[in-house]
Amino acid sequence: MPLAKRIIPCLDVKNGEVVKGTHFVSLRSAGDPVELAKKYRKDGADELMFLDISASTEKRKTKVNLARSVAKELDIPFTIGGGISSVSDARNVLTNGADKVSVNTSAVANPSLVSDLADIFGAQCVVVAIDAKRNSNSGSGFSVCTYGGSFDTGLDAVQWAKAAEKRGAGEILLTSIDRDGTKLGYDSELTRRIASQVSIPVIASGGCGEIKHFYEILRGTNCADAALAASVFHYGELKISQVKRYLLKKGIEVRV
Amino acid sequence: MCALIQILDYGSGNLFSIKDSLNRVSPQLKVKISTDYEEGRMDGLVLPGVGSFSSAQRLLVKNRPAILRDVSTKKMPILGICLGMQLMFEKSEEGKGIGLKLFKGNVVRFESKQNLKVPHMGWNRVLLKKDAMDNSNFCYDLPASDWAYFAHSFFPEATDGNFINATTRYGNQTFPSIIQNDNIVGTQFHPEKSGDFGFKIISNFARAVISQAEKDPAC
User: Fold this and answer.
1) Which residue ranges form the domains of chain A, and what is each CATH number?
2) Which chain A residues are Cβ-neighbours of B117 within 8 angstroms?
3) DSSP class of B34
4) Looking at the complex, does the CB of residue A65 fall below 8 Å from at least one CB of chain B?
5) Subunit contact A124:B195, Cβ cutoff 8 A
6) What's the CA gap between A70 and B218, in Å, rounded?
7) Which end of chain B has less neighbouring CB within 10 Å, N or C?
């Protein structure tokens, strides 16, 4: 029996409020994280993702408070990411209510962080987020960027995904920087290239603008296991329940 | 009247959600998180679902005799979630040591083959056995089939089908997803993360804990 394909709203949180930008910049406000979490849970979200993108030195405190206040409202899994660079950062949010942590820049800089987290908390707790960009110099055609998409490491995205899996990542959150905020649809080529090379779930992210984009990325073989979206939900263009009914009609197994 | 319930802390991961979920059922429930089991004082015990078999098993060693006494003589309700359910079996391929042996059988790993992704992580169907709804207080009011959230690489190969209340299929493998022997219950999924369906299960367990407390009111 196949698992249900997951629909995951993503909340980019900056200084305690949800924001959304294009190509990772020009941020605008989209509301209170806890209120949005409650709304999405009620509408049938399968999971929630929180990415803390604050630049302040208060980061740590923000994340712990966020974990606690969201955990009080949610009975579905939720992941916190952004600025988690050590086992103690991860422990801090996991013991305060988060179910998983997502690591990105710090994992590229120090891949053993992935193995350390998996050993202590289990693979199911560890999401490796990869921000990928088309790069013709890279073997797979995609390279890994860090620091919120601003720095191209030149590292091949497929190779890094495979290495992360080997080190114990339980999931890959794969964001296309080229598509982020464009509403042109997920980068299907990127997603399928990575999903065919790893045996852990892949969450597709970046570019969702219409209901059919969900279907395109969740159908067929080597597709995504989950689709993440932000602005289409934040600005009320689509409802999660509506997306799921549509997918079900198209023959995609979802939880309704 | 209040009922005391302990969540055994193996030292890593999220215990907040299960605690919060129990608190939502009834203000009568006083939930305590601790690494040491307090024999004779508790009306219920939860073995949570985070950590690894070896590390949790090491912690269980010192608490085992006390837990087993309360579970068998006082008939105290005990709920094992995910890894906590696996700890109720004899041993596991995940690590060294023995489990609580409350159920016969061993815990084995999913074989990763034929595009089967391991860990088994996400929402899958829980199919209730026909008689489970009528015969089990723990499965009271549950639908015949519903979605639950799983996150695991290992599962118990139960040897006694009588104790299986529900099963789940992943790839070619069918495994027990709800087991029960009287006051001893286990779920392979995370009820605290399984929306309304999971909350029903937590409520049923909490009600058993409250009636346990009524037998011998401690507070």
Assistant:
1) 6-249 (3.20.20.70)
2) 199-201, 225
3) E
4) no
5) no
6) 33
7) N
A52, A89, A99, A131: the active-site residue: A131
| C-alpha to C-alpha distances, A125 to A100, A128, A203, B4, B112, nearest whole angstrom | 4, 10, 15, 29, 19
Q: Which residues of B are catalytic?
A: 82, 190, 192
Per-residue pLDDT, B112: 67
- Which pLDDT score, from 0 to 100, does residue B207 have? 95
Q: Distance (Å, rounded) from C-alpha B58 to C-alpha B8?
A: 13
Q: Residue B218 has what pLDDT? A: 63
- Yes or no, beta carbons of A124 and B192 under 8 Å apart: no
> What is the ipTM, given to two decimal places?
0.87
Domain B3-215 belongs in CATH node 3.50.50.60: no
> Least CA distance to A99: which residue of chain B?
B14
Concatenated DSSP letters of B16-32:
HHHHHHHHHH-TTEEEE
- The pLDDT score that the predictor gives to residue B182 is 94
pLDDT at res. A153: 94
Q: Do A76 and B193 touch (CB under 8 A)?
A: yes
Q: Determine the average pLDDT of the residues in A98-104.
A: 94
Give the CA count within 13 Å in the CB-facing half-sphere of A46.
26
SS3 (DSSP) at A54: coil
Whole-number Å distance between alpha carbons of B196 and A255: 12
DSSP sequence for A96-146 = TT-SEEEE-HHHHH-THHHHHHHHHH-GGGEEEEEEEEE-TTSTTSEEEEE
Q: Do B12 and A124 touch (CB under 8 A)?
A: no
Q: Where are the domains of chain B?
A: 3-215
- What sign does the dihedral B164-B165-B169-B170 (CA atoms) show? negative
Which single residue is written with the structure tokens 């996991």?
Answer: A94
Res. B115 pLDDT band, cuts 50 70 90? low
CB of A8 less than 8 A from some CB of B: no
Looking at beta carbons, which residues of chain B come within 8 Å of A125? 13, 50
Q: Are B188 and B175 in contact (CB under 8 A)?
A: yes
| pLDDT tens readout for residues A23-55 | 555 555 667 889 999 999 999 999 999 988 875
The CA distance from B89 to B101, in Å, is 5
CA pair distance A238, A232, nearest whole angstrom:
6
> Measured between CB atoms, which of B14, B152, B196 is closest to A98?
B14
Determine the distance in angstroms separating the CA of A93 from the nearest CA of chain B, rounded to an integer: 9
- Measured torsion, CA atoms of residues A63, A67, A73, A77, in degrees rounded to the nearest 10: 120
Nearest CA in chain B to A124: B151
Q: How far apart are CA A60 and CA A91, in angstroms?
A: 11
- Nearest residue of B to residue A226, measured between CA atoms: B122
